[in-house]
Amino acid sequence: MSETKSTNPALVEVIRGSLVESRHFGAIAVADVDGRLVLALGDVQRPVFPRSAVKAMQAIPLVESGAADAFGLGEAELAVACASHSGDHVHIEAVQSLLAKAGLDESQLACGAHWPVSETATRELMQARRRPQAIHNNCSGKHAGMLAACVQLGLDPKGYERPDHRLQIMIAGIISETCGGELDRPHMGIDGCSVPTWALPLGALAQGFARLGTGDGLSDARARAAMRLVGACFASPVLVAGEGRFDTVAISALAPAVFTKGGAEGVHCASLPGLGLGIAVKVEDGAKRGAERALAEVIAALLPEARFALADQLEGESLNWRSTVVGRIAAGADLKRALAGMEAGPRRQDESAVR
Q1: Residues 319-336: what's their mean pLDDT?
Q2: 90 CB contacts (<8 Å, ≥6 apart)?
Q3: Which CATH class is domain 10-317?
Q4: Following DSSP, what letter does each residue of 293-311 receive, concatenated?
């Protein structure tokens, strides 16, 4: 991708005392299932790597292939297949269960190892004088799901993470259909967990999340698979991320009205099934705090009831190490103006959006 000078607005400001100390510039798209943009703030046509935000799309073959039924997978295993998990016991157990039911083992995971996101889980490993394994990788559930889909489809699991493997070709087609556009091979990268990641315009990513949450615009089989996966995340939100993390907090408080999923480098997306809308946020500096705050503001603007449910995320107080309030994190002026003028459009008939 060629480099161009950014004209994106400051979505979020970090204020200390009376001065703006930092700004998070970025773009936001809100779209319906047909790709109509309800909100386009910043450059929503520039391709961005969604990274882990599209894990539920990458998990569709696990259901669509029949693997979920053939191996008797429950909501916990399906949710962890869509997760960027913290590596706590509940997450590790769900991944181990998924692998075992498919006749697989941890040695086949190609995601690589890193210390758990959870500080508690990391301390437990260190106290036991153990090194992290691939199963502690936040993407291990996704990889377990990919391996299980290979088994059901009769594909060689070896090399399942490579772009030329039939499973990854299938996943690319699913992402393309769900997001309503062709994927461009020069815009493919390799994610931190070694699978392909495809850069998409932010508007297309928002459209994809509108379709993911409603099933509209997808084939019947694909819509059922998407609904089953999102429903599993609604049933087990702690498995999607972990205690205290944004996606778990938001889904726990707002399901089935909101499904959220973050990715690395300042990408965060959401589906609002009752409104038939998807949201995609990209913060240029890759900061999680900027993306989460911007997404929370958009959700609260579209669903007024979410402002109370996401109060802690929207409060924005900055504390020092003595718990003294020293500043705040707030929506930027451009974001406030854009949200004030946004029209959500007609509400869908089926508010639950889980069928």
Answers
A1: 92
A2: 238, 239
A3: alpha beta
A4: HHHHHHHHHH-TTHHHHTH
